[in-house]
Write a structure and sequence with these properties.
By secondary structure, this protein is mainly beta. The chain contains no helices and nine strands. The radius of gyration is 14 Å and the shape is globular.
């Protein structure tokens, strides 16, 4: 596990732990109302298609996000979802990256 960091244009510093070669991660995991997605970009001006699916495979949230080279942080505020395990998928340039996130009740 490596410590990664990024410097956002607003001056905030974000640090997170990431396994070598990991492109997609989410924190906190488990989450209650909101979580952040960290997505590694390998070029500027890419578009990531991000979907969150329930255990039956139904898409419960989707978004398109422009990403750049390096770490990209994307915030999801989804307090209305029921507790459970969800599949988080990010597709960039035809490549799919998948992880699971756990929503718990507050």
């Amino acid at each position: 596990i490596h410590l990664k960091r990024s410097f956002a244009s607003d001056g905030n510093i974000t640090a997170w732990f990431q396994r070598p070669g990991e492109v997609l991660s989410a924190f906190p995991n488990p989450w209650t109302d909101a979580f952040d997605v960290m997505l590694q970009g390998d070029a500027n001006d890419q578009v990531a298609a991000i979907t969150l699916s329930d255990p039956q495979g139904r898409v419960v949230h989707s978004a398109y996000q422009k990403i750049g080279t390096g770490a990209n942080r994307i915030h999801f505020d989804l307090p209305h979802l029921a507790a459970g395990v969800f599949t988080l998928e990010a597709r960039v340039n035809g490549t799919s990256h998948v992880t699971r996130v756990l929503k718990v009740q507050p």
